[in-house]
Amino acid sequence: MATFKTSSFLKYDDYMTPKYAWENIKDYIPTDKIIWEAFMGDGKSGEYLKDLGFDVIHNDNDFFESNEGDVIVSNPPFSKAKEILMRLKELDKPFILILPSSKINTQYFRLFKNEIQLIIPKKRIHFEKQINGEKPEGWRNACNFDCFYYCYKMDLKKDIIWLD
Ligand SMILES: C[S@@+](CC[C@H](N)C(=O)[O-])C[C@H]1O[C@@H](n2cnc3c(N)ncnc32)[C@H](O)[C@@H]1O
Known about the structure:
alpha/beta, 19% helix, globular
């Protein structure tokens, strides 16, 4: 049976978060909560969040079988966005998720109608692509899509925050 560790998932979902993507929003991540970076990738994302001073759980357990920490801060596998958001709604888990801006138009995001707050990065986030744990030859970290930080139950002062 395919699992999230198999190569097909790795091929399509392994876009690693650069450190600046978490630095961008460090002022909006709570310091008094335990952060669950729920999607492991190469493990660096959790390290970056720890480096920024947060208390972070970051392991390679199956997200759908787990419920850890107080707030999810992660860049999830985009191909499973629907299932992930349905699970988060079921858990009523606060989150900050990096996802493509186009996801706002999906039907499943309507699960959170009037409850989502957005942080909009000033510049496009360029993820590091990996295939089976390796950066593909010739990959230039030049993404062709934009993302938002989608926030749920984060009590931001504004519903849309434009980062400077
Ligand atoms: C877009 S990558 C980002 C990794 C890391 N969160 C980061 O920000 O650098 C998403 C990762 O989720 C992992 N993944 C896919 N399905 C998963 C599941 N059911 N449970 C936990 N991790 C999963 C994939 O292996 C992939 O590396």
